[in-house]
Specification:
about 600 residues; alpha/beta; tt1808, chain A; Rossmann fold; 21 helices; 17 strands; about 35% helix
Length: about 600
């Protein structure tokens, strides 16, 4: 779309400058038709750059020799190009799914007759190695290119000009639409234009077809992320996201300690004209945050590989679910990366001088903020990792609600991870015995009723599907107001006799440290019984507790003892109700109790 001076000066150019500071190369769209790239307006791949990347990435294991000839490279590019061209006869989301599989897994090809003995190998388009590499090495292995004002010829013969397109190895993976902050609803306008460019306008886009930009769906066949930006604001989505599912990115951790640290980093960078990337007195914006975290080359590859996947969404009762392409929100990415960091750096019980496992923690994300997807992203982050220290983990997910078990298992299954549902304690123990062994890697789901069995006053015989954690908290507050003890208000604490009686049912299953236990509603009293049993069954496992219910004072100590708290009794990650309301993740809800009661 046509751009004005404000859009160019306050949105597009600052965005490009920040990308360049992180290692992105920049060219103007018109330059791609020159002798170096020889791109025609109908080309969506930068074939020369892609060919160079394919030769560079695909080498003989051990020797590092390049083996692909021109014909091999042309064949690999042809596979990607043919898959993208299918938008002429198939839905964009289906074509995008096929192309994404090629990007993640590569395309099969006949290997070198000497080096591979003619066996089938998978030719890779992207070097996904991230672990243990510094940023400079990642920039050497892949080419990160931002192109402004990219002209693309649509099927109707009209030329469409895209504000910013981000290419990795000559493949378009991010499209950014910039709007002046002076126009009304700039982010909404950007999103509507992005979806029109995809060839699939939003239902509420009331513009006449001739007033909308023409669609160029072939370019979006490989695109993983869409960004609408207006300088102060920015929102992240995918090719299937409706306007309400585009979201701001408001976290700067774990890359930066806080906003102030990002401000200092931006102020330290000088642009080509000598000006600072963030001038004195200039405020930090959501555009700065999104660019700094999501579009940092290392993080972009991480997000593309682990934090974007397809999932079914029920839109109307009685109708089949729609498949959408989901991307993480900032709190989900932040929490998962913190868990990964602790798994890497925390001591296990097998380490010298370590009395307890130090890789655990509590994730406190308010109800309705997507904890099930956070677990799914975690499963994908670990088991799709190229790092053997991460991808060998067996995950055990324990919940007390069948409905939540179904939600969690569905979310993890669509992430591409093997899922096993345990029907009994014997099932769980049999699956855990395979942990840390070949073929034992999986995500295991267990209902606490099936795993622990009935414990009078703590665990019933059936799932607690009717339980509403938010209502339970209000009721607990009222019991405290009436004189009840905070330690007993939320749940009755199990006695040592009860714990010991249940423990006698369990035996050791695995001593592997590559077991990660995820416990939903981790503040509840049955967690202490579960903890004791798991210490016997998987003594060297790491434990992460998830909850979104306010934890009563009496439960904080016990929850921290089981899962571990950070210094100053802090959770590993917290996403509070006011943050979720600001992000429009949940609808504002206010509970009126008879007294405030203590809460943490």
């Amino acid at each position: 779309m046509a751009r004005g001076t404000v859009e160019l000066d306050e949105v597009e150019r600052p965005f490009v400058a920040q990308l360049k500071a992180m290692g992105w190369r920049h060219v103007h769209g018109s330059e791609l038709s020159g002798p170096d790239d020889q791109r025609a307006y109908g080309d969506v791949l930068l074939a020369r750059r892609l060919g160079s990347a394919i030769r560079r990435i695909n080498r003989v294991s051990g020797t590092g020799e390049r083996w692909m000839g021109d014909a091999d490279v042309d064949s690999a590019i042809g596979e990607l190009r043919r898959a993208a061209c299918n938008v002429a006869t198939k839905k964009l989301k289906d074509v995008n799914s096929d192309v994404t599989s090629l990007l993640l897994s590569g395309t099969p090809a006949t290997g070198h007759e000497v080096h591979h003995q003619g066996k089938t190998v998978h030719v890779q388009y992207v070097d996904w190695e991230l672990e243990g590499l510094d940023d400079a090495e990642i920039l050497k292995r892949n080419e990160f290119l931002v192109v402004d004002q990219l002209r693309v010829r649509a099927a109707d013969g009209k030329d469409v000009v895209l504000d910013l397109v981000l290419f990795v190895n000559g493949i378009p993976v991010v499209v950014i639409e910039c709007k002046s902050p002076d126009v009304k609803d700039p982010i909404g306008k950007a999103i509507r234009d992005l979806r029109a460019y995809c060839g699939e306008p939003l239902d509420d886009d009331v513009r006449a077809p001739h007033d909308r930009p023409s669609g160029v769906p072939e370019l979006f066949a490989s695109v993983q992320l869409l960004v609408g930006a207006s300088g102060d604001e920015a929102a992240l989505g995918t090719i299937t996201s409706t306007e309400e599912h585009f979201a701001a990115w408001r976290s700067v951790t774990p890359d930066y300690d806080d906003d102030a640290a990002l401000v200092r980093a931006l102020q330290a960078v000088r642009q080509d004209d000598g000006r600072r990337l963030l001038g004195d007195g200039q405020k930090l914006t959501d555009q700065h945050r999104l660019a700094a975290i999501v579009l940092k080359p290392r993080n972009l590859l991480n997000i593309m590989r682990h934090y974007v996947f397809e999932m079914p969404v029920q839109t109307k009762e009685g109708e089949p679910p729609l498949t959408v392409k989901a991307v993480c929100r900032h709190q989900q990415y932040r929490a998962v990366e913190k868990i990964v960091a602790k798994l890497r750096t925390g001591r296990t019980r097998l380490d010298p001088a370590a009395e307890d496992d130090e890789r655990g923690g509590v994730i406190w994300h308010t109800q309705g903020s997507g904890k099930s997807l956070t677990m799914a992203f975690l499963a994908r982050r670990l088991q799709s990792s190229r790092d053997p220290e991460l991808n060998r983990f067996t995950l055990l997910v324990v919940t007390d609600r069948r409905q939540l078990e179904r939600q969690l298992s569905a979310a993890v299954r669509v992430s591409g991870r093997p899922v096993r549902i345990a029907k009994s304690q014997a099932d769980v123990e049999g699956m855990l015995r395979r942990a840390g062994k070949p073929g034992g890697r999986a995500v295991i789901f267990a209902m606490i009723q099936k795993y622990l069995g009935r414990i009078p006053g703590l665990v019933g015989e059936t799932a607690n599907d009717d339980r509403d954690p938010s209502v339970e908290f209000v009721e607990a507050q009222e019991r405290i107001t009436d004189g009840g003890a905070a330690e007993e208000a939320a749940d009755p604490a199990p006695s040592e006799d009860v714990i010991e009686k249940v423990r006698r049912r369990f035996s050791e299953c695995s001593t592997s440290p590559y077991v990660l236990v995820l416990v939903d509603e981790a503040h509840r009293s049955h967690s202490s019984v579960l903890h004791a049993c798991l210490r016997d069954a998987v003594p060297n496992a790491a434990r992460i507790g998830f909850t979104g219910t306010p934890i009563m004072k009496g439960k904080l100590h016990d929850t921290g003892r089981i899962f571990g708290l950070e210094p100053d009794d802090k959770f590993l990650d917290a996403y509070l109700m006011d943050e979720a309301e600001r992000d429009k993740v949940v609808v504002p809800v206010r509970y009126e109790g008879r007294g405030p009661g203590p809460r943490t």
